[in-house]
Amino acid sequence: MKIATLTCFIWLALLAGVPAVNGQFGVGIGVGRRNPRSESSGTYYRTELFMGLSIPGGGVVSEEDWEKFLSEAVTPMFPGGFTVLASRGQYRETSGVIAKEPSHVLVFLYRKSSRKKTGSKIEKIRSEYKKRFQQESVLRVDMRSVDVKF
Asked: 99 is in which domain, residue-wise?
């Protein structure tokens, strides 16, 4: 429920008008008013991380552990904001078994000028998630030139 609430809040913030902070996508609420920083609209890069919640050997990443991961590993690197989407997915493990599992997708938007620095932060997040929850992989999808309007 917390993830659904967080996702809803972030999407509302996206629709309300959100300024860029230090080249990163920032969360702010501006319902009922025009965004005075319309220069924050424009071309961004978008990176998505697909994070499975199944733990090898049994069990799943708990809601409490997920929230702790966000607060310790993600929020400090992206204090301006990010989006969390609840999802389900499947993939073939190295053993050949098809794994079906609940997952989360983290979405980051950032300016080209901060691409290298932001990319490094995202890789640290991927590494930490794999290490902390014994994951075989975390899928990363990078998209260039995403038009964003606030």
From this structure: 2-148
